[in-house]
Amino acid sequence: MNTQPPITITRLDLQRLERLLDSLETYGPAAEALEAELSRAQVVGHDEVPPGVVTMNSRVHCREEGSGKDYHLTLVYPQDAGGEGQVSILAPVGCALLGLSVGQHIDWPAPGGKTLRLTLLDVEYQPEAAGAYAH
């Protein structure tokens, strides 16, 4: 049974992420998970993506339902990760956030075998909505 929420990504993000996958020296579980997400996504033009959808370089506000803890995360490419709140698209939570819409939730595998449920509360910044995407 598929419990994953439907996702939407832009054609430009799809092209860039496919190039990223092609460039990887080792193809591990993170790459396989990202490939699976890309294969099930609805692909739209950068001018057609709704503002409440997580795209690459989006800043999001989400809440972990078990603890009520809020997170402010920015979804970035691996080479841009490392700053506070920045999460790589190749991290499990990064891959899971891509394409989510406000109000949807994901189950995030945490250390120690626990699963955390994250609910997307807001897309605080989306490059496409801000007109800040590069062709």
Give the end-to-end Cα distance, rounded to a whole number of Å. Answer: 37 Å
Taking all residues together, what is the mean pLDDT? 89
Gyration radius (Cα, Å) is 14 Å
SSE succession: EHHEEEEHEEH
Structural class: alpha/beta
State the major sheet.
5 strands, mixed
In the CATH hierarchy, the third-tier topology is known as Chitinase A, domain 3
Categorize the overall geometry. Answer: globular
What CATH first level would be assigned?
Alpha Beta
Going by CATH, the architecture would be Roll
CATH H level: which superfamily? Transcription elongation factor, GreA/GreB, C-terminal domain
What strand order characterises the main sheet? 5-4-3-7-6
The domain count comes to 1
Approximate helicity band: 25-40%
Domain Transcription elongation factor GreA/GreB C-terminal: 51-125
GO molecular function: DNA binding; kinase activity; RNA polymerase binding
Domain Regulator of nucleoside diphosphate kinase N-terminal: 5-44
Protein name: Nucleoside diphosphate kinase regulator
